[in-house]
Structure formats: C-alpha cells, structure tokens
Amino acid sequence: MHVEHLLTDRSLGLRPLWAQDAALLAREISGVTVTDLEDPARFVRPGEVVLSGLVWWAPGKAERFVSALKDAGAAALFAGEETHGGVPEELVEACVRHGVPVAGVPAHIMFRAITDTVYLWQWGELSRRQALPENARARLSRLLAQEAGPADVLAAAFAHVDRTAAYVLTPSGRTVAATAAAPGVPAREAAALVADGRGLTVSVAADSVSPYERWLLYLPDPDGAPAGMLHEVAAALGRCQETAVRRRSAERQAADELGALLAGAGAVEGTLQAALQECGLPLDGPYRVVVADTGARRPGLAEGALAEVAGHVAPRAPQAAVGRLPDGTAFAVLPSQSIGEAWELVAGCEPGVPLHGGTGSVAAGPGELTGALAQARYALTSARSTAPDTSVLTDAATLSSLEALLTGVPAEVRAAYRRTVLGPLLTGERAASAVLLSSLRTFLACDGSWARTAEALHLHVNTVHYRMQRVEHFTGRDLSRLSDRLDLWAALLCE
C-alpha cells in the first residue's frame, strides 16, 4: 500500500494539504502510528503513516514535531482537524520544508477507519504463515464478541507461540496485560523500554481514548512473532479497548453523580454512601481525592490522565472512581496511598501538556470526602498559579506558609485584595509608588526594624520613617499594629 492509495480513498475523505512529489506519494506504507507527543520520534518506524490529533500543537512547536517525523522516516502525516478547527498553516509549511506529505483528517472521520484500511490492505498481502492461524483468529473473534478483557485476548493471541513474552503497556509503563512467559516489569522500567525503542512496539488504535491511556503491544524480542500477526493482534486489542471505553461510560456517570454530591453543601451521609456503592468504592475508607486540569485542551484529557493514575495505584477495579465535578473539573477518588510516582510517570507521557493536579488530606471515611475535595481544589489552584506551563501535583499539606497559602486563592480574588489594601500605592505616580512599595516590602521583610531597613536600603532612618508614614497615609493602615502589617504583607504577596 502506498501513500497515494490512502489520499485517493474517498471513504476516508482525507484533505491533501501538500503531497506534490510523485516519489513520496508512491512510498510504501509499513504501518500506522497514532501519537500526540510533541517529539514522536521514538514511536515512529520508517515508512509509517503518523496520525495526530494535534493536542500537542501550539505556535512555534510544529518544526520540532515535523523534523522528528522526517528523521524517523515517516511516510506521511495525517492531522486531525477537530482540535483546532483545521490543520495549522505553520504545520503545513513545516511539512513542505521537510518533504513530509500532509493531509487533514475531517472531524467526522475516526482514526480507526484509517488504521483499519491500512491493516486490512496489508493482511491481504500476507501469507497464511505470517498471519494468525485460523483457530486463533476464531478464538479471538469469540472472545471479542463476549467482551473479554485484554488479558484473555492477549493469551489467546499468543497461545500458539510458545514462550513468547508479550505485554500490553501504556506510555506511562502500566502493564495492562502480559503473556504467561512475560516476567513482571516495574512501571518506570516499562515506560523507559517503550520510550527508548528497545524491542518491538505496535500502537493499538482505539477511538475515544486519551493519549495517557492508549495501549501499546510490546515484545522485548523484535523477532518474537511475525509482523502481520502483531498487527492483527493489535487490531483485536483495539476493539477490546473500545469495549472497555464503552463500559466505562456508565461508570463515569456514577462518578459524576458522586462528584456533584461532594461539591454540593451538606451531602446526606446515606445518599453519599449509596453514591460510593454505585461507583463500587468501599464504604469505610480511607480515601484520597485528586482533581486535575490540563487547561484549554482537548475535552477528556484530564479525566484520561486521572484514569491512568488510578490504573497505577488501584489496578484491581473497582477501587477508584474518575469523573467530572459540576464545573467540569476532573476528579478521582482513590485508595489512600501516595500517587506522586504515578503522577510523574503519567505527566511524562505528554510533556507538551501542562498537567496540573491537587490533592489534600486523606479522608478517613465518607464524611471527610467533602473536605478532602475542597482541599484538593484549593491545591489545584495553587498548582496552576505557581507553575502555569509545567506539570505539577500540589498537596494542600505543603501549603504551610502564608505565601504558599495565597497561591491557592483564585487570581481574580488576589488581584482584588491587592487593589483594596494597597489602593493609591498602585494607582499613583508610578516612580513614587514603586519606591514606597519597595520600601514597604523591605521594612516588613526586616520584621519592622527601622535600623535594619535603613541599612538594607542605604538610607537614613528618618527617611525610612517618612516613607512608612506615606504608606500609612495612602493605605489607612497602622504599621505599629501586627494585624495591619500582616494585611499589607499579604497584599504584597498577591502580585
């Protein structure tokens, strides 16, 4: 199959944006990779068509992405139009510079349709020796009809291949399933294996799956099974994951109802216990509540990240609930253990997406969940304000100073408080106001010591007295009173 075959397939409706070189159009396609990594090179094999929803894209980032595709030998880029309402011109220009054919994928076309087209074409060219045996294929079909899980599907697919180690992994290193011959691999090590390109990795294409949760069929031995067989197994696993996604939609609805109860005031204990039971959660705790946000990104991205974190800390369902609060914030109720390592692994899957999270004290029982959620939301606000462009998980317990505590106050509230307390010092003549604000900050940092302030500012003590009198005049505060000093210090920290 060649690139041109896909571009001219009317059933796919691809919109060619640049593909003028006949040699590039005639290039044979070796497979398909679905990725939203900002630097996808380690997952792309020579000759593969790359499908991307462009979640990673922001102005100035196209060059790095396309350069990585070129270096990896990608045959073409098919970019989804749903996220940005089209394919950014910057991305098209980068493809032209690097000689990578590019086409837009309309919002109504699922990536699964493209991967199926490629793999079905390839299967037709495979000999029977290279593909799955008929009995194995029949067994897989029965399992998929029964909505079997990935462990059963993987075991059936490799039953005829003795002692082959095969895994279904996520990009963060979570083991979804493994054959009997595959030794256990810690998550951090598994993530490194997939990222480094060791062994053989085949992407599993499934619709409505976040980049954090996508499955990868991984074999430590690149020659452990024929390529045709692996693509067929990957397609079966894709159907398996889509079934799991559909099943999870009902669970998400129950979690959303739990979130509405926790976010409301005065949840009745009996109603709360019923909601926990509906989610399959234990009624006696302890619990950890986490909230997450990825900014103005693709819908469902934060829920996907939390679901993957839950998969690490609560691998045996149902031990966790993931849903959305009434305001749209993603949240999860998990077992009480620490999630720091899992968060780091999950956030590392999408380095171009700032994954912000907040958590609070462990809730000993259902009655403490509402308070734990309030702490987590406060910590999330702190995470967003202190590291807007970096993935970070903030624990409310770490907000142990006034400065740290104020980071959890919404930016609009901080700004209003600053204007109210400092008043004319912010609206007066700029140079004079700046001098007074700087002097006030130094005075308070020196614990109100006139001598130390004068020394720090290289001024006479009388000048310091004069400046502080002007501050008192404009703000209406008395710097001899501790409460007024705290008010002014808090206002200065609200920058």
UniProtKB/TrEMBL annotation:
Transmembrane segments: none annotated. It holds the Pfam family GGDEF_2. Coiled coil: none annotated. Residues 269-380 form the CdaR GGDEF-like domain. Residues 436-493 form the PucR C-terminal helix-turn-helix domain. Residues 21-118 form the Purine catabolism PurC-like domain. InterPro entries: CdaR-like_regulators, CdaR_GGDEF, PucR_C-HTH_dom, PucR_C-HTH_sf, PucR_dom. Belongs to the CdaR family. PANTHER family: CARBOHYDRATE DIACID REGULATOR (PTHR33744), CONSERVED PROTEIN (PTHR33744:SF17). This is PucR family transcriptional regulator. It comes from Streptomyces fuscichromogenes.
